[in-house]
Amino acid sequence: MKLVVHGVTKEFVTGQGVTRALGGVSLEVRDREFFGIIGPTGCGKTTLLHIIAGLEKPTQGTVEFVGAKRTKSMVSMVFQESALMPWRNVEENVPLGAEFRQEEPSVYKRVSRFFLEVVKMLDFAGAQPHELSGGMKQKVAIARALANDPEVILMDEPFASLDAQTRLLMREELLRIWERDKKTVILVTHNLDEAVMLCDRIAVMSSRPGLIKSVVTVDVPRPRNFKSMKDPDFSRCMEKIWDMLRYEVDSAMNAAHSSKRA
Fold first, then answer.
1. Fewer CB within 10 Å of terminal CB in the chain, N or C?
2. Are residues 104 and 123 in contact, defined by beta-carbon separation less than 8 angstroms?
3. Residue-level pLDDT at 255
4. d(CA 175, CA 161)
5. Distance of alpha carbon 71 from its chain centroid, rounded?
6. Other beta carbons less than 10 A from residue 233's beta carbon
7. 81-93: average pLDDT
8. SS3 197
9. What are the residues whose beta carbons fall under 8 Å from the beta carbon of 41, sequence distance 6 or more?
10. How far apart are CA 32 and CA 5, in angstroms?
């Protein structure tokens, strides 16, 4: 086991009172697992990811990293947008973890060029972020996360802003990178086929306040690529998740409509 989340709740105080985002989430993520979290809009997926990352504190409950620490950092996060520093070129954006840890400056270039090679972006080391496509920016963001040498990589809908074709390419690229050293990854996504393509197991969340309804094992053989989507097991897994998710999506939509009328 790598991560244990136990009884995590989260409440936010707003102008309309107290909003309960998470209703008591418990889950376990295995070492070197590619773990997915899927649920309707507003169910607290991103909030849960931020709590795991230490960016927010839970109202109740605990997050525990299990086992010996093997690497330099506990977590790295890849956001929906690449969040690259626009005043730095690609090579300078990658080694931020080493800079924060105040490692020797001689390390920066070596680390940066190594991980840019991993994501096939070394030829663009001198480029500015505004010169890159959306997919290229996310590759640099992934290189930055890997360069931090974390125990766990947290990904919050990293391909949501990309067009459909680029998303397909980026999924295969991410799988290729993950197969390289099998980091523990936790992926939040709205996309069913993306979750099934990438993940070993997928936690299905209820509508707000978010709870884990079930954890589904993906029985689709690895390595996976676009052709894996034609596998009957792929379709069966998607149907199983959608059967659990459809009611929750309807509930979330109805709650949103009721809130607007109020």
1. C
2. no
3. 64
4. 19
5. 19
6. 13
7. 93
8. helix
9. 190, 252, 256
10. 17
Q: Which amino acid is at 216?
A: V
3-state secondary structure of 235: helix
State how far Cα 182 lies from the chain centre. Answer: 15
CA distance 81 to 109: 24
- At 71, is the pLDDT very low, low, confident or very high (cuts 50, 70, 90)? confident
Q: Would you state the structure tokens that stand for residue 3, as one six-digit string?
A: 């991560």
What tokens does 52 get? 């795991």
Region of poorest pLDDT, from 99-103, 158-162, 166-170: 99-103
> 1-71+150-236 has which CATH code?
3.40.50.300
For residue 153, the cross-strand partners are 76, 185
How far is Cα 196 from Cα 216, in angstroms, rounded to an integer? Answer: 10
Tokens of 67: 């086992």
Classified as helix, coil or strand, 102 is coil
Q: Position of tokens 């939509």?
A: 253
Residues 6+ apart with CB under 8 A from 240: 216
C-beta neighbour count of 151 within 10 angstroms: 21
Among 6, 3, 67, residue whose Cα is nearest residue 35? 3
Summarize the confidence of residues 132-151 as an average pLDDT: 93
Whole-model pTM: value is 0.92
The closest of 82, 86, 114, 83 to 98, measured between CA atoms, is: 114
Average the pLDDT over 123-149 and give the result.
Answer: 94
- Sign of torsion, CA 74 79 82 85? negative
Amino acid at 14: T
